[in-house]
Design a protein that fits this description.
The protein is of the alpha+beta class. The strands form six sheets. Strands 11, 12, 14, 15, 16, 17, 18, 19, 20 and 21 form a ten-stranded mixed β-sheet that branches. The longest helix is centred in the middle third of the chain and has 25 residues, at 218-242.
């Protein structure tokens, strides 16, 4: 997020590890913007589908490998660019590497060097069976695309820095020089010759994150699949011959027979052995988790579909896209699983299974079985509050959920609008919700995210809970309040806290998070009569226990979104085991003066700083006049002398 009044860098000495974590978070937060930069700079004569994948590949591999001299040099350059330009150093570093990669991809190479370059080039993201294209624009975008193809890569980069990044000519020239452009002045001069409305660069025509999907050559695909099937059959026959007792690879000692002949393994592959719970079992059961979900959906009797789902779960083939949340084993079920759902969702047939430890989602196209997707998520220890819904499918930026049998109603609530009433979501008799819109696009100037829609569920007994889609099968439960007693989000105060911190949910994407708690732990009077700032701690607990993600955020008066002051992975701060936190940040007053601010939770009775700023204050607040760019470490004490380390 671009730094404005609040600098989103931790108040501590320079640390390459911290800078790497900041760059990783920045890449996730500004991914669409970085992908657009790469797409615009890449050669326009590339096929559009390959240009899209290349842009995503450049952004996804923008972080340097390792933390050696190369990483440190990039950090130093990024800090220098951030000071000159007023942006976050992590964003400056990632943007520079994306721009450098896009320019390198646009440079001509000799024919004899193509093979060597292809071997060195990192693999692109793979999309099986589809071609992805940005949405077509109007006449203005078409004219710009023609003119864009006649420009050099350096001139395209200059126009992107001016139009998308809003850089001045001096800042653009410095950045072009930093990424290896031989003559930045010529690039800017060539860009000056183009009569361009910069607003066109923000259109869907040049957005590699909002895409249309079309099939590849279906006839050729079928031919390749038939050839692959013949090769696979030959491999299986040869493997069986080589693996016969007394021959091939030798005896297996005390090992059991191969999986397919193991009794438990055979039962796990048999759709007739699947467990199907009665619809009202949850009413009398002592447990209220996924184990009492009934089998729902119009295809629960389709044995062929269930057999394919179990077989792919046991041994996914090369055309199966497999994903598992961190800490989740991707192996087959140890025995017969429980069927939760089997039915058609949009353009796919979907099966949900549960083996007591994991929820598995199998999806295949409504027409054809050659390709499939398999998603696994760990859910051991789930209780009623965490077992309210599962993701059935995502399509066109929308999400459909399967709700628990005890849910009586569902609604969509925009976390960014705390005063708005939730919008009722329709549900089928099977408990499947209507599509819930995904997050809106962030503002290109401020970086503030758009709508952040959460799923609000009403339960029998009047209880209501909020869930957020973080890109996994299991949505994360949202709570508010002190770590020792988090509560479901309800009331103006809790909704107001989440409105300012909702944009930070992007940091928890794909981390196996089961719940996210937001806690306003301090209100600090600001120097020079600038009002009162709020300090918030946002903690995402994972299904696997450790590696919780913790963010400390500062919400300055008049700002719609809290700025990340510090973050950590695996820290106990702000959690049930250690319900205290201390964090600091640089802040700029309205008069232009800079201050180092720090605030601790109620247990903190003393705060001290070291590094570029040395100061000590009694109480849990500290405000010290300083300069932009200083680094300081924080240390606090409680009344009994216990040390409280500053979050970083």
């Amino acid at each position: 997020m671009q730094s404005q009044d609040v600098a989103s860098r931790p108040a501590r000495p320079a640390d390459p590890v911290t800078d790497e974590e900041r760059a990783e978070a920045t890449l996730v937060e500004h991914y669409p913007r970085l992908a657009r930069i790469a797409y615009l700079v890449l050669p326009p004569d590339l096929p559009r589908a390959r240009r899209v994948l290349t842009a995503h590949g450049l952004v996804q591999r923008a972080l340097p490998r390792g933390r050696g001299a190369r990483w440190a040099a990039g950090v130093v350059a990024a800090r220098r660019a951030a000071e000159d330009e007023g942006v976050d150093p992590g964003y400056a570093l990632v943007r520079e590497r994306v721009l450098r990669g896009a320019l390198a991809a646009a440079r001509p190479v000799k024919r004899w060097a193509l093979l060597r370059r292809a071997r060195r080039r990192p693999a692109l993201p793979a999309v099986w069976g589809l071609k992805l294209h940005p949405h077509p624009g109007g006449a203005g975008e078409l004219a710009l695309a023609r003119e864009w193809s006649e420009l050099s890569a350096e001139a395209r980069a200059a126009l992107v820095l001016r139009g998308v990044e809003r850089l001045s000519d001096e800042e653009a020239e410095e950045l072009l020089a930093a990424v290896g452009v031989a003559d930045p002045e010529d690039a800017l001069a060539e860009a000056d010759e183009v009569d361009l409305r910069y607003a066109l660069l923000e259109s869907p025509e040049f957005d590699p994150c909002t895409l249309r999907a079309r099939p590849t050559d279906l006839v050729r695909r079928r031919q390749h699949l038939r050839a692959a099937g013949v090769a696979l059959a030959a491999t299986v026959v040869c493997g069986a011959l080589l693996g016969m007792p007394g021959e091939g690879w030798g005896p297996d000692g005390a090992a059991a027979p191969p999986y397919a002949r193991n009794p438990a393994g055979q039962a796990a592959l048999d759709p007739e052995q699947l467990t199907a719970v009665e619809p009202d079992a949850w009413r009398s059961s002592p447990r209220t988790d996924f184990s009492v979900w009934p089998a729902r959906g119009a295809l629960t009797g389709d044995r062929a579909l269930l057999r394919r789902a179990l077989a792919v779960w046991a041994r996914p083939g090369s055309t199966v896209r497999v994903s598992a949340t961190p800490g989740t084993q991707a192996g087959a079920a140890p025995g017969p699983a429980q069927l939760l759902y089997a039915g058609r969702v949009d353009a796919a047939r979907v099966v949900l299974l549960y083996d007591g430890l994991r929820v598995v989602r199998y999806a295949e196209p409504a027409e054809g079985t050659e390709i499939a997707a398999l998603d696994l998520a760990r859910v051991d220890g789930a209780e009623r509050a965490a077992a309210g819904a599962l993701v059935l499918g995502r399509s066109d930026g929308n999400v459909r959920y399967l709700t628990a049998p005890w849910v009586t109603g569902a609604a969509a609530r925009d976390l960014r609008k705390p005063d708005a009433e939730p919008v009722e979501l329709g549900r089928s008799a099977q408990g499947v919700t209507d599509p819930l819109p995904g997050p809106g696009r962030p503002d290109p100037d401020t970086g503030v995210c758009g709508a952040v829609n959460a799923l609000q569920l009403r339960e029998s007994g009047g209880a209501g809970r909020l869930f957020a889609d973080l890109g996994e099968i299991t949505p994360a439960r949202l709570t508010a309040g002190p770590p020792g007693s988090p509560r479901d989000v309800a009331g103006p105060e809790a909704y107001g806290e989440w409105a300012s911190t909702a944009c930070s949910l992007a940091v928890f994407q794909g981390q196996g998070v089961r719940s996210v708690n937001s806690w306003a732990y301090a209100r600090q009077p600001l120097p020079q009569g600038n009002g009162e700032a709020r300090w918030l701690c946002t903690r995402g607990e994972t299904w696997r226990g450790p590696q919780a993600r913790v963010l400390a955020q500062l919400l300055a008066p008049g700002k719609p979104v809290a700025a990340v002051a510090a973050q950590s992975s695996g820290a106990p701060a702000c959690g049930a085991r250690e319900p205290r936190v201390l964090a600091g940040a640089l802040w700029k007053a309205k008069a232009g003066d800079w201050f180092l601010l720090a605030a601790g939770s109620r247990q903190v009775t003393e705060v001290a700083t070291s590094g570029d700023v040395t100061e000590r204050a009694s109480g849990r607040f500290l405000a010290v006049p300083t300069e932009q760019g200083v680094q300081a470490a924080l240390e606090g004490r409680t009344a009994d002398g216990t040390a409280v380390h500053g979050l970083h």
